[in-house]
Write the C-alpha cells for this entry.
Amino acid sequence: GDLRRFKCGLPVFDDIINAGLHPGILPRQVGVVCGRTGYGKSTLAAFIAFQMVTVDPSCRVHFFSLEMPAEMIGGKAVKRQIAADCIKADSAADRAKIAATNLRGTWGDRVTISGEHEPDQVIARAAQMARGGTNVFVFDHLHRISLKGKTEPRWAYGNFMLELTNHAKRHNVAWLVAAQLSRKYSNDFTNTKRMPMDSDLAESGMVEQHMHWCVALHFDDPKNRNVARLCVIKNRHGVANTSETVGVDYEKQSYTRRYPGS
C-alpha cells in the first residue's frame, strides 16, 4: 500500500534503505547505525532525528540519549541551525541565542529527549510517547542498556531488540538504534581498510535477527576524519552492498557505489 516514509536528506537512508518496498525509513521497522568507538554514531543519529522533523513538519521524534546529555544534543542542533540560517551577530553567544529561538519556534516539542536506560522503562516511555503521536524513536546506544543481575549480555541485547521490534509493529512507529561494533573488530587495527559486515556487530547473533537494516560508519582513511563512508551492510528489503561518501557534517554528500570484494 501507500506506506509512509521518513526522510533525512542522506540518499543512503532515503533512496537505498527499503528500496524493494518504499525507499526510506519506514514504520514498523528497527534500523541500526553502527561503528567503532568515537566514529560519530551519536552525531549521525542526532542529525537524522533533527532532519526528520525539518523535512516533515508532521513528524515527531523522541531521542533516548545514553551517551550525550540533552544539552550537548541541543548544542549540535543549534550549531547546525547557525550554519543553515547564516546568522550574523556580534558574538557567538548572540548567534547561539538566535539559533535556539529559531529552533524553538520551528520545532517546538516535535523533538523530545530523555535518558532512560532500563529496558522496561524505555518500552514504557516509548509506549506512552507513541500514544501521544510520536512517530520515530532513536536509541543511543544499544550496548549501554542496564544489565540486571547476571543476565548474559547477548541475551539482554537480543531481548531488548525483540521488544523494540514488537513495539514498532504494535504502535506503527520506526526505531533507529546506535550500536557498537564488536571489540574484536574495533581492536584489530588491520581491519581499518576492511568494510564492516553485519557479523562485526557486538553480540551480532542476537541483534542481527531483529533488525531490518543496518548502516555502518567507516573511514577509508582513519587519519582523515572529515570524510566518512556510510555502508549499507544489511537491507532486508533492498540491495546491501552499497555505500555513500559524506562529509562529517553530513551537509555536502557525494554518492558512490561499492560492490562486493572492492
Observations:
- The first helix runs from residue 11 to 16.
- The two ends are 36 Å apart (CA to CA).
